[in-house]
Structure formats: structure tokens, C-alpha cells
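TA notes, week 10

Several of you asked for a full example with nothing omitted. So below is the full record: C-alpha cells for the whole chain, then the designed sequence directly under it. When grading your own attempts, check the secondary structure regions first.
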């Protein structure tokens, strides 16, 4: 079985926003995966700090498309105002 190289295209501590973006990517036939510390998700659910951090990963080959879709969604002023106001710690991870 071959390994798939993944790239983080979004980083946040807002699970709702990250899952929404994941569903948008899946609707556009882009496979994606969430990664969050298990302690912060299952054992002691938290929404702040390192334990709440979530990464959205996609295969490297579709990372640019995924970033464009995320950017297009977040640039919509009505979506940006209603969702990003909940979390000021969301950012794109373009350096990886």
C-alpha cells in the first residue's frame, strides 16, 4: 500500500468552522482529514489552548485547490463575519 503525503491547509481551535470547511472540501471531491489531540477532544473537551488546536489535512496534490476553496469561502463577508468572529485563532498554514 502506498503512502499519501498530506499537507495542513487550515489550523484553528474552532471545531465547528473546521468541520464545516472539511464538509465543503468533501463536497468538492477533495479528501480531507482532521487531526486534533485526543485528550482535548474526547477526554477533557476544551476550546482554548494547545489541546483545542485542530488541523485540516488534504493530499499534497490537491492542497492548492483546497486552499483556494477555503479562501473563497472565508472571503465571503457574511460567512467571515459570522464564523470567524467566533475564533480569532484560525489561520492558513501555507508554509508547510
Amino acid at each position: 500500500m502506498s503512502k499519501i503525503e498530506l499537507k495542513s491547509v487550515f489550523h484553528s481551535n474552532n471545531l465547528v468552522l473546521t468541520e464545516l470547511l472539511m464538509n465543503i472540501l468533501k463536497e468538492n471531491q477533495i479528501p480531507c482529514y482532521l487531526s486534533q489531540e485526543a485528550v482535548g477532544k474526547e477526554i477533557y473537551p476544551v476550546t482554548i489552548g494547545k489541546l483545542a488546536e485542530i488541523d485540516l489535512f488534504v493530499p499534497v496534490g490537491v492542497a492548492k485547490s483546497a486552499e483556494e476553496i477555503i479562501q473563497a469561502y472565508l472571503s465571503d463577508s457574511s460567512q467571515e463575519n459570522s464564523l470567524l468572529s467566533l475564533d480569532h485563532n484560525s489561520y492558513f498554514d501555507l508554509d508547510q
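Residues 15 and 54 are 7 Å apart (CA to CA). Use that as a sanity check on your answer.
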